[in-house]
Structure formats: C-alpha cells, structure tokens
Amino acid sequence: PVLAESLVVFTIVLCVHAVVWDRYSWCAVALTIQAFYVQFKWDRLLQLGGAVFQFRAAANSGLLPASLVIPLLGIAMKERCRSAGIVYFERFGIVVASTGMLVALFLSVIAVGVTKPVPTNTCILTGIAGSVIIYTMKHSLTVSEVIEVLEVLLIFVYLSMILLYLLPRCFTPGEALLVLGGISFVLNQLIKRSLNTVEGRGDPMDFFLLVAVVGVVLLGLFFTVLFIFMDSGTWISSLFFHMMTAVLGLGVIMPWLYRLIQRNPLFWLLQFLFQTQTRVYLLVYWTFLAASACGVVFYQNTKRSSESKKHQASTITRKYFHFIVVATYVPGLIYDRQLLYVAAVLCLAVFVFLEYVRYFTIKPFGQALRHLLSLFLDERDSGPLILTHIYLLLGMSLPVWLFPRSCAPKGTLSGAGALVPYSGVLAVGVGDTIASVFGSTMGEIKWPGTKKTVEGTMTAIFAQIIAVALILIFDSSVNLNSSYAWILASVGLVSLLEAYTTQIDNLLLPLYLQIMFMM
Questions:
Q1: With CB atoms counted within 10 Å of each terminal CB, which end of the chain scores lower, N or C?
Q2: CA gap 190, 48 in Å, rounded
Q3: CA torsion sign, 55 to 56 to 60 to 63?
Q4: Is it true that the peptide bond before 204 is cis, omega within 30 degrees of 0?
Q5: How many angstroms separate the CA atoms of 72 and 75, rounded?
Q6: For the chain, what is the radius of gyration of the CA atoms?
Q7: Would you call 453 helix, strand, or coil by DSSP?
Q8: 95 near 148, Cβ under 8 Å?
Q9: Inter-residue contact 112 to 123 (CB < 8 Å)
Q10: Picking from 179-183, 401-405, 428-432, which range would have the lowest pLDDT averaged per residue?
Q11: Spatial contact of 92 and 77, defined as CB atoms under 8 Å apart
Q12: Which of 93, 105, 107 is nearest to 132 (CA)?
C-alpha cells in the first residue's frame, strides 16, 4: 500500500509539472524522491517506538503525500497568478512553495538524524534534495522573502515541540506536517499583516480567517498549560474557563481584528451575515441542517443500550454527516461563496471550542459531549482529541478559503480551475462517501494490501463525474472549456489515493484535487 500510495503521489507530481516545467519542478521531483526514502525511515521508527514523540498508530508516517501538498499548492498558485498578471500573489505562491519544501525537508532531517545506524544513502539523497531546494531559493527569493520562510520554519519547530508533546497519538508525522505547517504559516501571516496594516487594505474575510485560527490555537495552548496545575472538571475551573474565554475573545481577539479591518468586528459580522435576503435564507437553511446533524447524534445515542456500551456507529451512519455537509456547501458555493467562507470560519471556531469543552470536561456540557461523541469514534481518533469532524470541515472549507480570488477577476477560474471551490465536495462529500458506502456493502475485490475495494473506487469516480455534470447544470459560473480529460484524470488519481492512503483522507484528498484543478 505504501508503494502504491507513493506511485499515485509521484504521478500527480509529474502531471502537475507536465503542465509547467521550471526550476521549481526540479525541486519538487528531488523532494518527492527524498521523501519516498525518508518515509520508510519514519515507518521503521514508528514500528520500533524510536520516534521522539508518540504518533498515531495503525497508519504509516504519510511523509511523502504530506510533503508535497504545500509546495504544489504554492506552485499552482504561482502559475495561476502569473497567468493573470498579479505579481504580488505570484511572489506569494513562490514563498508558499519554498516554505513547504523547507518544512518538509526539516522533518526529513529529523527522521534521518534519530535513525540508528545512520542511513548513508538516505542522508546523501536528503543532502542532494536540500542543496537543490536551497540553491533554487537563493536565486528566486528576495531577502525579505527568505526571512519570511525562516520565520515560518521557526514557528513550526516550536509548535511541533509543544503540540506533539501535549497531544500524543493525535497525528502521524505527515498529518503533523500538514496541520502544524498550516498553522505556522497562518500565524506568520497574521503577525506580518498586523505589523504592516494599512487602513482599507486587504479583505476583511481573510483577516477574519487568520484571527479565528490563531485565536482558537492560542486559547487551547493557554488552557492546556493552565489545567496542568488545576482540575478542569470542577465548577470553579469551568467558570474560570468561560470567563477567560470571554476575556481573551473580547480583550485580545476582537481588538486585534479591529486593528486589521478598521471597524467593529461584531457590527461588520452582523452586517455581512444579513446583508441580502439570499443570505438570510441560506442561514435559516443551514440552521435546519445543523439541527438535523444534532438529531442524528441524539438518535444514534438513544439506540445505545446499557448492554452494548462498546457499540460504535457504523460506517454508513458516519457518512450521514458527509451527506449533510454536501447539502450545506453546495447551495453556498452556487449562491454566495463569500457567506460560505465566513460561515465556515465561524463553524471551525465553534467546533474547536466544543472540542476544548469536551477534552477538558468543562461543566455543564463537557461530560455530555464525551458520552455523545464516543459513539462515533474510529481508529483514527486514538489520541486525547477527537479530530475527524474537524478534519471533515477543513476538507470541505480549505478549497473555499484557498481559492485564489485575487487571481480570478471574474470570481472564477477558467477550465478545470472553475471546479476548485468544489474540490472538497467532490473528493470528500461525494467520492469518499460513495466509495465507503458501496465498498462496505457491495465490494468484493479488494485493492492489494488494503481494506478498500475496486468497486468502491470505481463507483466513487463515476459519482464524481455525475456530480461535475450536475455542477455544470446548476452553477452558471462554471465553464470547463473542454478540459474533461484532465478532470477525469484528476478525479481518478485522487480516488486511487483514497484507496491506498492511511492518512486522514478528509484533509488530504481535497487538497490534491484542488492542486490538480488549479493547473
């Protein structure tokens, strides 16, 4: 399975650079080969228990697929913005690609450094890949851009040491690279924009995303350290938790956001949410769907009897939430993507806050959340945090958040790029859901070395093609310009990746599909 997963990722890399081959292509190929070799060193460390931190069991390291996501996203953004003539965001894409390569290289060096005996061939490959990447960065980046890349790397190092120690068994090395690398980049961007803020410059939605992500992370770090010294399950601790959340929100996060958007954040948010009648209808509809999702949770828990405490929700039951999420995102993508952008940020903040309440057993809802959500745990929730529902939200939202709006003057990209915001809907909402449902109920022929079935994968590809046709019918802004072969190849490769990967597919698949669509 690891070899097949690596082959699919290498094929995606070649497809991306078949469209555009430049100096960064050599870096991407060198990083791919190097990550392939280092991945086996990480897998060996995990099997022998020699890794520095405790990583998620029942999965390989996932270093190769995770190492290429951020660099390929940066390269795709660079090409799109170069075609549109937007120099600022073209340079931003180069910084993103360089940052992703350097962070992935750093994680590889750690694996090589702690492996005993020292793997000579892997060290040589890592040295060659590092030399190619650093040489390219030297001739591509300005001094300020190099400093920015190094700042992100420094933040990543400190975040990794803190969060991987505090949250054992929550991530694989690849998932840690993606999640912590993304948080590090967001934090650096927020600091940079806060120091260079200019009134009226920048999109308030982008600032809202940056502040929300950094705010919930800082909130979690603060309470994690605090509850080392006090019992979080008492009423006094719970009251202190809610008070400090209000203080940090109103006293730190709100003023920070006010400085960036130069207006009252609450008034801006209320005005934004209720600006048009369409937005009011969408909010009412989404409220109904949220209530339906809560109803599914309560109904499944009522079926749990005292004799079946170990009963877990079936795969099909868990996929109900995928259908609800698709029903949530598709109308937002068609009618109001800006509202969907902001609503997804709010939903992420709420999800993370509720996870803090559950994790710290904050009264009055902490124990109830633990009981209700324990029914939906699977092997990927082996650590102290339950992250699968947050990954589902991120997988659906990241294509919306990362859509290069500034490089698409008409609000959409041409060709397959028009489907970029739908990457999460197609890969997770349709493809992964259909593959799981049909594979578990009717699948008989298994892919070698996995539990996934050929029937499930083929059905997923077919379902995504039908979904693309429906998008063409209902969304008039989508114009594929005869790029059907590329779309079919993209959907097929990502579906194969879903069949072989042991990483969090809700997070990985939409990003790879977005990369393919952006080329």
A1: N
A2: 39
A3: negative
A4: no
A5: 5
A6: 22
A7: strand
A8: yes
A9: yes
A10: 401-405
A11: yes
A12: 105
DSSP string, 114-125: H-SS--HHHHHH
d(C-alpha 160, C-alpha 162), whole Å: 5
Q: Which conformational region is residue 263 in: left (phi greater than 0), alpha (psi within -120 to 50 degrees), or beta?
A: beta
Helix (H) or strand (E) holding 159: helix 143-166
CA distance 409 to 413: 9
50/203 Cα distance (integer angstroms)? 45
Contacts of 438 (CB under 8 A, 6+ apart): 455, 456, 459, 460
What is the largest distance, in Å, between two alpha-carbon atoms of the chain? Answer: 67
pTM of the full predicted structure?
A: 0.92
Please name which of 133, 124, 182 lies closest in space to residue 511, comparing C-alpha atoms. 182
Measured over the CA atoms of residue 173, residue 177, residue 183 and residue 188, the dihedral's sign is: positive
Q: Which two tokens stand for residue 421?
A: 């915001």
Structure tokens of 141?
Answer: 């980046």
- Residue whose entry in the numeric block shows the structure tokens 């090589």: 112
User: Dihedral, CA atoms, 176, 179, 185, 189, nearest 10 degrees?
Assistant: -150
Phi, psi of 446 (to 5 degrees): -95, 145
Q: Taking residues 506-516, report their average pLDDT.
A: 93
Backbone dihedral region for residue 217 (phi beyond 0: left; psi -120 to 50: alpha; all else: beta): alpha
